[in-house]
């Protein structure tokens, strides 16, 4: 975890720690949105059973797609920071000679 003083120093990145928190917040929002779509689809089924069923399926598919793409986005950000760490290690290894 990061400390408050890390906000004012540039020796350590805080984004890899924070991105995990944002990822879980996005997951919660996606799940809530999916549940809202499912309940909306159930309410629509009273008027149009086929339309409500399609709305439920689209809500589930949208929630699953959102979860997958949010994970991909979070991993892309973390990969950039990991590449930076590895390049720093390579640079330090090269200057030891």
Concise summary:
The protein has 97 residues and is an all-alpha fold. The chain has two helices and no strands. The chain has one domain.
How is the topology of this model organized?
Blueprint: H1 15-44, H2 49-95
Helix pairs in contact: 1-2
Could you explain the architecture of this structure?
With 97 residues, the protein is mostly helical. The protein has one domain. 79% of the residues lie in helices and 0% in strands. It has two helices and no strands. The protein has helices at 15-44, 49-95. Helix 1 runs antiparallel to helix 2 (49-95). The longest helix has 47 residues, at 49-95. The model has no long low-confidence stretch (mean pLDDT 88).
